[in-house]
Amino acid sequence: MSSARQPAPSRPAQAAAILRSLPGLAERLRSRLPPHRVEDLQELRERLSALRPLVQDSTAAPALLSNAAARGALLGVLAGVAAHSDGEEAELAQLRQELAGALRDSCVLEHAARTLLLLLDSRLQHADEDGNDCQNVLGLFGILDRIAERLPCSATAGPAASEHVALAAALRGVMSGRCVQHAVLVCGLVALCAADGGPSYGLPGELLQRVPLIGLRQGPAGAVGGFDLRLISGRQVLDFWALRSMVCALGSGDRVAPPGRHGALALLLRVGRLAVASGRSHLAAGGESGAQAAAESGVRQERGTSTSTSASASGSGSGSGSGNNSSRSSRGSGSHGPQQVQAAATPQRPHPPSMPRLELVLDENALQPLFSGALEAAMALCFPAGPADRPQLAAARVECWRLFADYTRDVLPLRPCDPLPASPVRHLADPGQLMPGAPLPDSPPPSWADALAGGWLPCLERLLRRGGEDPAGPELQLSSSTLFINERTALIDWSMSWRHLAVLLAYGEPRQAAALVATLGKLLRAADPVRLADAVSKGSVTPAGAALWMLEGAGLELSTTVAAASGAGGQAQGGLPCGAPSAAGRQLALMLSYALCDWLPPLARLVARAMQEAALCGTGGQQRVPATPGSASRRDAIETAGALLYPLLVWLPALLPRCNVAVDGAAAACGGAAGAGSSSGGNGPDDDGCGGWRQLLLKEMGAVQLLGTALHVFAAAAPADLPPGMLLRLVRACCAFAVAFPREVRTAASRTAGGQASTRRGLGEQLAGAAPGLGHSGAAAASQPRFPWWPRLLQALAGSLRAEGHGAMGDCAEALAAVLQSWEAGGGVGAGGEAASSQAQAEVGPGAGVPPAAWRRVEEGSTCFDARVVERLLSTLVPVAEARGVLRTCSHPGCVSLAGDSEAEAEAGLLECGRCGASRYCCADCQAAHWRAGHREACVPRD
């Protein structure tokens, strides 16, 4: 029979023929490279077009549904090719877009999903005897997953890659059909209900029992395959494809069909909880297996060393008993503790008594992508906070924060190499300027209220503590990148650093806020000066960087406030206190006071160490020389010391008002200077009249000696090696301290015979001997060598400031040099060797040998524009004793223990000194170290 007379094949036969040809075409597409792949794609497009009318023909439907393997191969290849967008094949972008459009317009996935739902519904009357349902579900969700995993890459492409955006839109269209979405929700909800035992939202119970639960297991050849978990018991790994497809569907952003916004939120949050519970279960299982292995190893070792005689067995009975007890303890822990945690983490839907218990967990590799996808989609539905939000949305935002905190505690340690999870931190609104003692609102901004209710404050402290223990771990990167780095510029945003921590300190639970401050203080004590300086100057991540970022940000915020007040003609603006402080303002003042007490002494020690290194590099006392290639180490040492000293130069003058010494020329300083100079009075170290702050500056920090050392190091430094404005702030601080503490400065100016210091070579030795003791205690600060305030160093700084255009401050430096020269020669200001202000000089008269004009100029230098506002803002700082009493921590000032999640929790476990009962310690090592450091002399036995 000729071909012309052969009857045309029936439509079912045509469909079957096309399906039979698809596996070979799929294999060619996978193996061939351009340009031959273009031909294959065109052939595939033609066959897809030929299938289109057959899909609508009811007589061809059986053939289209008969070849599952061919159908799966076709859709899998189409999904992979349509989503693949390597740069090497950019010329195929248009063809991929057309292919994705053909997939969408042909409704192939819609028909596949509808057929799957019909098959599952038919199983209510006819059981799936051959087990094809599992493979059908796997096939559909494997295809959807291949499409879904490419969507973020296509959707986030820049404007220049508009073809990627169009491709993403086409791929979303493929997945947005009603049947596809319904199948995704049904299968995802069934998996979720089986895993967490939560509500099914009206899904028929029969369908809950019939939809396959896909599990993962590794075959003999290493390939991972799926199987139905309904016939399995025990702890099993649940395939995540159905859940990820459901997350993608719920997070598409254009859903108007059920389950609606609140239903979608509930499902997404449940997926996040399941990811966290699975991580907790994996951690518990790992700990249980490790303990069991250790116990079994001990038992085997004990059995190997035991003899066969009863006497030997009796002799080793103690060790054997220990091993057996360990084994029993391990088994007991495994059978009660971890399993109880797992059961609580993943509650199960009640099963009939005859059905064994099934515990479902997600694979470790799926935790991060699934959690991040669910949290991102949930946050898109409930953030940002609105004024007319329903309570459900506010509760959902709080739950997002709790999930994030739980993930960082229970999953992040399990997968330290995974990408960082999605975080709600980016949804925090700028709280605005926050000044201590200001009349702040009674409640935080809405976004911050959600964060505080969701546990962000203790979560942040825990992340910082774990980052301090392991700087290479993900916790440090997560806390630093999400808190202090501007996502738009990838730079440290100093002002936002201060505002972020300030709102937590102002509105957080007081003990939790104080614990955060204490943790940052411990991180500072353990910090490396070079790495910490890099955190300031280069924005690198280091555990203690948050404290310096906050100090820098607060200083910058103060400068901004100064500018606002100046522009308003001195009126209260920009966060300046203009009324009675609110409860939040008072708490912020208390926490800032505690932070300054806890952070400044260790920071001063770090500065001393850094300046020691700079001096040992040969900079001390030398003339300024241009940088050369061989002076890189010297330049690095100068930059390190300058970066660390800079925040101290902001805060040292600011704290002088708390010492009852005026920093402007209009306030009387005669009695104040005498009080400041009489640091040997009866005030205790924390007695504020204001002896506590004076003790902090002069004894614990050694501020006068520190400034003298800075004069030696930075007077010889090249301006390019210093932070901008560094020399200006150094001269201002020196003038302020000369006015506030004239006795200490006069003593520092004449420490060596004839007012001359040791040789330049000896300077390094002085620094090396002094730096370790700086600020550890009053005795240590008093016994360390002083570094003379040489007049010629101030004269050198005066010349540098004039060269940089700061003539007024250059004159102040020159005037301070003249005062120092008169003090070296034995002169004084005022009566009894005490400094006097301009007003007091008019009453008493200038001291012999000190030009009154020079002293007035020094006073002007101490009353810089910033200081007036700083004095006004910081007048609400509380006494040192009150600040340090906000939280009881280890009495050893060098304690750097980061055990536990919070300093607030550690307080309950402090050990009391058995002799005096006043000191408490976190461990025996700290108690012994404190005893050697001087507590032996201070410890008074109890009555």
TrEMBL record:
Catalytic function, reaction form: phytol + CTP = phytyl phosphate + CDP + H(+)
Gene3D superfamilies with a match to the protein in the record: 6.10.140.2220
Known EC number: 2.7.1.182
Renumbered residue ranges of the record's region Disordered: 285-356, 831-850
Polar residues composition-biased segments: 336-345
A Pfam entry, by short name: zf-MYND
UniProt keyword list: Chloroplast, Kinase, Membrane, Metal-binding, Plastid, Transferase, Transit peptide, Transmembrane, Transmembrane helix, Zinc, Zinc-finger
Domain spans labelled MYND-type: 895-939
Keyword flag Metal-binding: yes
First-tier enzyme category under EC: transferase
Domain of life: Eukaryota
GO cellular component terms, semicolon-separated: chloroplast; membrane
Cell cycle found in the keyword field: no
Similarity remark: Belongs to the polyprenol kinase family.
Record's protein name: phytol kinase
